[in-house]
Specification:
- By secondary structure, the protein is α+β, with helices and mostly antiparallel strands.
- The protein has a single domain, classed as 3-Layer(aba) Sandwich (Glutaredoxin).
- The chain contains 5 helices and 9 strands.
- It has helices at residues 42-53, 55-60, 73-83, 96-100, 142-146, and strands spanning 12-15, 20-22, 30-35, 63-69, 88-91, 104-109, 112-117, 120-124, 130-134.
- The longest helix is centred in the first third of the chain and has 12 residues, at 42-53.
- It is globular and about 40 Å long.
């Protein structure tokens, strides 16, 4: 994981609508940047819905929320529509952002090792520094982890 206190790596990607989103878009704002494995899977849905249900709290505290996964823009559009997600999701099929944020690596599932998205969340301050990093995400209570 990237360390708290380090400068957040620059990122740029396309959201669900094909619009470019970059770290520069959040200059002078706080950002919750979360990485998740796959749209519409149980854990990812729980995490997204927890963030959705608390989105106004994040906004009131000056935070924006952005999700990143390898899913396509079309998949993100369906996921957003199905669960009324109020924030954007970046499509990163080549894992460029995932790798920059050390959210891509070896995973063990049922004794099998494979490469995949490591569920990870970073909180970035107004100056672009990482102020929190969570690798053990509680998908159903992620907001509580972030606003502790």
């Amino acid at each position: 994981m990237l360390q708290i206190g380090t400068k957040a790596p620059y990122f740029e990607g396309l959201d669900e609508n094909g619009n470019s989103v970059s770290l520069n878009d959040f200059a002078n704002k706080k950002l919750v940047l979360y990485f998740y494995p796959k749209d519409s899977t149980p854990g990812c849905t729980s995490e997204a819905c927890d963030l959705r249900d608390n989105y106004q709290r994040f906004l009131a505290l000056g935070y924006e929320v952005i999700g990143v996964s390898r899913d396509s823009q079309n998949s993100h559009q369906r996921f957003i529509a199905k669960y009324a997600l109020p924030f954007h999701l970046i499509s990163d099929p080549e894992c460029v952002i995932l790798k920059a944020y050390e959210a891509w690596g070896e995973k063990k599932s049922f004794g099998k090792v494979s490469m995949g998205t490591l569920r990870t969340t970073y909180v970035i301050d107004e100056q672009g520094f990482i102020i929190d990093a969570i690798s053990k995400v509680d998908t159903k209570n992620h907001t509580a982890q972030l606003l502790k």
